[in-house]
Amino acid sequence: MLDNVSIKTSVETLADTATIIIPSQLHNKALKVEDKVRKGDKVVIELGYDGDLNLEFMGYVLSVAEEEGSIKIECEDDIFLTRKPLKDEQLSNTTVKELLQKVAKLIGYKVETNYSRGYDKFVIRNANGYDVLKKLQEECKLNIYLRNGTIYANPAELAESDKNVYFDFSRNIETASLKYRKADEKDFEVTVEGIDKNGKRQKVTIGKEGGEKRHVIVTSWKSEEDLKARGETELKTLAYDGYEGDLTSWLRPFLLPGSSARIVDKDYEYKQGDYFIKSVDTDFGSSGASRKISLGRKISNS
Hints:
Number of strands: 21
Helix content: 10-25%
Distance between the termini: 44 Å
Strand content: over 45%
Number of helices: 3
Largest sheet: 11 strands, mixed
């Protein structure tokens, strides 16, 4: 009954998504799923080998459509629940955690974050919970995701766990599109521009003068040190010694974006290290199963 399952998970997008494709006919009879699968229905996807399954995705049906002789079911994770309206209000001297708690209350979730900075002013107008999370993600450069009844929000490319999975070029890497780079091969100059509630602007520039420029605008700041800290976070994601790119493996080892992975290369040990995982795309179908893993910055040497 199953043609293909494709699951896309990433710290750079608020929603994890899944696409399920099943045949439109069974034993030469058309399958009628319209009255069986509807928008908002709960979806659980488990994949694995020999009955040893991992929970790969939990979410809700977004749409059901028939395309080219198949039935395509598009799904979205728990971010689906946040698309509920919030009341219009203007908040003064609020924190990111307080704003997250507003969205969490909307859907009966709790909040876990180590991000301490706040807003002098935050306006909610004609917005839903998703809109607020999106703004916090973009302005504060946070990894935000919903899992197990909790909204998690932490600085970008901060590994959520110190437990590594291992990828070894001689054992469990099917293909790789990786480039080893050095931090001094490419210079970056980061300008962080803060805008306060009165429209006053302050800029801080760090990094290598004349390097490739990055411009970041933030409203969640109270001092020049906050702006510098935001710039340092940006630089860490841009300049490091290590791999960049992606690799393809199988369903084992199981891992999620936001975790870390150790890349083992016995021929070039100096290249080995622990890397932040930005995204994982999992594909399962008649031709087999695979994971495409996109690496973020190098966290440490192994």
